Every structure is written in C-alpha cells, then in structure tokens.
C-alpha cells in the first residue's frame, strides 16, 4: 500500500462523509492531506495513531490531522470469513480551507484553531462528548446541501469546547514516512497482526522489509518512535486486555493466547504497559467495559 494522496473529497463538495459497512476496516497503514473524524459503531481491533497503539471497540471516536499516519486494524477473526462479524463506522474528511483563512484567523474561531492544532497528534473523545458527537456523525450522511455544512460546523464547535479528550501520538512524534515507507510498514504491520499470537523473531520482520536485522531495528525505531519489541508487546497486551474483558479465561490461558511464552513475562509487561496486574485490570473494568479514557494506556 502506498501513501494515500488521492482526493477523498469531490471538487464540487465542501467535505466528504461515508457510513461504512464492511467485513473489516481498511487494513492499510496510511496518511492523507485531509482532516479525518472517525467513529467506530461496530467492530474491535487495534488502533494505530502515529506512535500510539491501543485496542479499539465500538464508540471509539478519533480526530486526526493532515499527514498523521493511522490505521484501525480489525482483530484477526474479522479476516477469517466469519459472516457474523462485521464492522461499521462513520468517517468524515475535510480540508482546513473548509472554514476559509479569513474566518479561521478571527477571534470567533480561536477554539476551532486550537482543535485543529491538537489534531496533529490525534485526539480521542470520550464521555458525553463522544456520545453526542457520535449521534451527530450518524445523522450527517442523511443531511443534504447547506444543512450538511452547518451540521459539520456544529460538530467541530462541540469538539472544540470539550474537555473530554486525550491526545494520542507522543508530543515529539513527527511523520517521517514516505510513499515507499508506508508499503514497507504495512507489510510489517500485517505480518505482526496475523502472527502476534505466535513467536515472532526480529529476523523474520526484517526479512519482510528486505533489510538486515540491525538496519531494520534502526529503521523501525525512526518511523515508529519505539523498538520493534515494544511494538509487538503493545499489540499482545492490547489483545490480552480484550480477552480479559470478553472471555472467561484464566490469566495463564490469556498469556498464551496473546503470544507470550511465559506467565512471568506476561505479568511484567502487562503491568508496565497498563499499570495494573491482569486480574486487577479485569476487576477494574469488568463492569464498565474498556477504561473511561479509552483503552489501556500504552507507551507512546
């Protein structure tokens, strides 16, 4: 997959909105020139925003700025032909010039300017903001003409006044990807997401990128802002969090199903990434589902 630069918005339209229904979400790591608002209505998996990695579930609502790499990778079971599993979401694309430079520079647009600036790291909205924004996003595809524009402006105003959000990508993250990098990183992402429950070696990942292990380690750290080992651990711990909340399995089973070879290593890495032991995590979130501020907090 190459870096997506094609126009997502018709030249005759102010912005684009799509109600998505598919067996799985787009599995390609990519970035584009448009701002993007995306809410997950159905489906689970792992979300990648810049250098940030964590699981997602229905209700996940994220605003990403231009050229910020992102991916909502559905869980492996969504690629296994189970027709009972589907994904659904609403996505909105727009350019900064939707508001016009003259209006955007005025005092009345201060909060919108601040919102757009924050989106360069990716913003996850939660709580009452997430609920109201999700409702409005689901209504938007049915609106026509200038009602659509007014609805989008109202949605951005709602988000700009909210305190129920958190930034995702690290403060120092910058997108160093080029077109050839997205294709290379996609092959690595796809391999890890297909095989993270198995033993994965650095040599195997490096071979996918057609690089030596040493070169690949440097390359991956530069573009992901973390080591390949840390990346793999985040994927496995995220899947373990999902199993802890959704399955009646003991911790040892979950450790094995998530790709860990020893229980002690699983417990150590789980606590390092979530600040909980596996059982404490299950107790804390078994009734409310995923944590109120999104999924388990990971490094990045």
TrEMBL record:
CDD domains: cupin_MtlR-like_N. Residues 186-284 form the HTH araC/xylS-type domain. SMART domains: HTH_ARAC. This is AraC family transcriptional regulator. It comes from the Bacteria. PROSITE patterns: HTH_ARAC_FAMILY_1, HTH_ARAC_FAMILY_2. Coiled coil: none annotated. It comes from Chitinophaga caseinilytica. Keywords: DNA-binding, Transcription, Transcription regulation.
